[in-house]
Write a structure and sequence with these properties.
- This protein is of the alpha/beta class and 257 residues long.
- The protein has one domain: Glutaredoxin, CATH 3.40.30.
- Strand 3, helix 2 and strand 4 form a beta-alpha-beta unit.
- Helix 2 crosses helix 10 and helix 7 packs antiparallel against helix 8.
- The termini are far apart.
Length: 257
């Protein structure tokens, strides 16, 4: 079953789920009290700062909004050393590799354009407050995001994962570019200072395909069925495009623990 975009839930936002401090590679059963907030540590954290794992998909507007709010919160907390790890989640794992026409997707998901237009209008208004220029009308196809997630992982090898994530979000939501196309991904890589030829070679190689699918499956097994989901140091987690002050509280709980 495909996952879903997680809208912020005020009641849940005030309940930060505390995970047991056990083996970081142990998987847990979803806790019915926390629903899609129940996660476990996905990988050990070798660094000295806080590890913030962001479970996301690049065609999820709530993820773009949530990531922008996370970045704003972190800008306001320069005293805290944070390492972000981007964890792929495939909202539409069964979509055709070349994507589908946006109108067909909207009918299937929302029953028609009218409902989608109202929802997108609300998201665009929230985005403007974060400096995001959503242009849902520019999107012609809903892409499969496997290769875009692979590109994030490749950029991470060069220390540019954060920039790549933001660039891919902007390309899709603000420019209507098809981020399933290798040429589009290579051009975005070039804009971020990476070699477009190496990007093309990486995409053609099939590297990281299995890793993305494994991460997506692991997220579901850990009880994550909505994105974005933010996990701090493997112990505290929250889902939804939360306000910066809620994310700051999540950070503070981890620092105090």
């Amino acid at each position: 079953m495909p996952g879903q975009s997680a809208q912020p839930d005020r009641a849940r936002a005030l309940h930060l789920h505390r995970l047991p401090a056990e083996n970081p590679r142990r998987q847990c059963e979803p806790d019915p009290r926390c629903g899609d907030v129940c996660v476990n540590h996905i990988a050990p954290h070798p660094g000295e700062g806080l590890l913030v794992e962001v479970v996301f998909d690049l065609v999820c507007p709530w993820c773009y909004l949530g990531v922008a709010r996370l970045m704003r919160m972190l800008d306001q907390r320069p005293e805290v050393t944070v390492e972000i790890q981007w964890r792929p989640f495939l909202l539409n794992p069964d979509i055709a590799p070349g994507g589908v026409p946006r109108q067909d997707y909207m009918v299937r998901k929302f029953g028609g354009e009218d409902r989608a237009r109202r929802l997108h209008g609300s998201i665009a208004e929230l985005g403007r407050a974060e400096g995001l220029g959503f242009r849902f009308d520019a999107i012609r196809r809903v892409p499969h995001t496997l290769d875009a997630h692979r590109m994030v992982r490749w950029a991470a090898r060069h220390g540019l994962a954060d920039r790549m994530v933001l660039a891919l979000f902007a390309a899709h939501f603000c420019e209507g570019r098809d981020i399933a196309q290798h040429e589009v991904l290579a051009s975005i890589a070039a804009l971020e200072g990476l070699d477009s030829g190496l990007a093309r070679a990486f995409l053609a190689s099939g590297q990281e395909v299995e890793a993305v699918h494994t991460e997506n499956l692991r997220a579901h097994r850990l009880g994550i069925n909505g994105v974005p989901c933010f996990v701090v140091d493997g112990a505290n987690a929250i889902a939804g495009a939360q306000e910066p002050e809620v994310l700051a509280r999540l950070l503070d709980v981890a620092l105090a623990g």
